Input
Amino acid sequence: MAISSTINKVSLTVANMDAHYYATHELTVAQHPSENDFRFMIRLIAFMAHAGERLVFTKGLSTDDEPELWQKSLTDDIELWIELGQPDEKRIRKACGRAKQVIIYTYHEGKASVWWQQQGEKLKRFKNLTVFHIEAKGVAEMVKRTMSLQCSIQDGEMYLNDNDLSQLVTLKSY
Output
């Protein structure tokens, strides 16, 4: 019998001074059985960095033709495709061909550095691709079945607070 996903309820308040976006999101987010708490928070951080009315979580780990998050236009065109980790060049090429903008968030410093050294030069040809590295130590402790998170973004820095913990999240571009 397969292990089912954990369902997390997230009340998220975003104050993004850089993008002039201020909103509260009530999210129901599935955590895949193979996904640890740190990676789950990385998905939430990626959502917070680009929060908007049409940004949604996809099936993610469960499917090969969808990213972790995407934003579609009213005509169903993919405006934003967000990947996590170190995807292979074939997947990146496919994403760049389907979406107006593609963003990759890496999150394990050592693995990400090696991946970028191997792929960075090849990836420069994709004009609609941006790659960031997320430094977010300590965010895994914020994961609960029911979470209330406050996120503020200013001058490229993200601060997370869950009433018990506060964390600085750094998004560093390659």
